[in-house]
Fold this protein.
Amino acid sequence: MSGAEKEVALLELPEPSSPGPGQILVAVEAAGVGPWDELLNGAGWDVGLRPPAALGVEGAGKVLAVGAGVTGFAVGDRVLAHEAPLPGGSGFWAERVLINADHAAACPPGLDAVHAAALPVNGLTAFQALEKLGLSRGQRLLITNGGGATGALAIQLAAAKGIEVTATASAAAAERLLGLGAVEVVDYHDPNWSAKVRGGFDAALIIATSTADAALPLVRDDGRLCSLTSDAPPEERGITSWDLYVEPNAAQLVQLAEQAAAGTLKLAPEPLPLSEGPAAFARVVTGQAGGKKIVLTRA
C-alpha cells in the first residue's frame, strides 16, 4: 500500500516469491496498524520495503507454503508474527506475505485472527521493556500513556508479576486501566500531573512522547527508565536510562498468544476491512485512534 511517492493507497501488487530456505508464505487474515507504520512509509525505519509494497510488520494468517529446512510449521497452520526486516520486500497489509519461519508463533485455537494480529508489536514491546526493566513483586513502575495499546498490555503483564503500576492516561480511560491491574491512574491532561503522584518509583516506562523529562525526577536513585519514544534522558543519580526498539521473538510471542487465548491478557482491537487501510493509517499516525488498536482484515 506504499507507492514510490510515499502515498498510502490501495494497489495491485505482484505475488510474493515462493518461500526460500527458512521462510514461510502466509495468507494474511488480519494485520495490525501502528504509529511505526509511518516510519516505514517515510524510510525512518528500514525494514527492507521495496515500493510499491504493502506496509505492515505484524499480522496473523495461515501458512500457504514452507521453504526448505522449515520443520516447525506445515501448510494450513495458523500463525502470528512480527517481522522486520521483511524478506519479501513487502508487508502484512496484503493478501500474502513472505516471512522468516523462526519469527512466527503458532496461533492457539482460542485466539481469532483479529486478536492475534493485534498482539505482536505492542505485546513484544511491552514484554521486552518489562524484561529489561527487571522489576520484581512489590516494586513500583510508572507508565506514561497507559491507555494506548502497548501501555494497556504493559500494565497487565506488570500487574501479573505483582508490580505496582501507576499510569498516566485520560480520565476516560481510568476505570478500564484500573480494571487491567493499575493501582493508580493520573490524568495526563493535567499539566501538573507529575506533582500528583508519589515519587520514588523503581522504574519508569515512557510510552508518551515528551514525558521522559517529567518522569525522570519521579524515579528513585539507582532506578531505571526505559523509553519507547527515542527520547531517553541523560543518566543522573545512578538511574539507568535507555531507548528500546522492539525485535521479533517467536518464543515471547508464543507466551503472549497463549495468555491472550486464555483470557489472562486482554486485547481490544478495532477491526476494519483492508480497503480502509489508507484511512486507518491516517487515523493512527495522527493520533486519532483513541487508544484503540486498529486491525485490517480480509473480510
Observations:
- The longest helix spans residues 120-133.
- Helices lie at 37-41, 113-117, 120-133, 149-160, 174-180, 212-215, 250-262, 277-285.
- The two ends are 17 Å apart (CA to CA).
- Residues 1-5 have pLDDT under 50 and may be disordered.
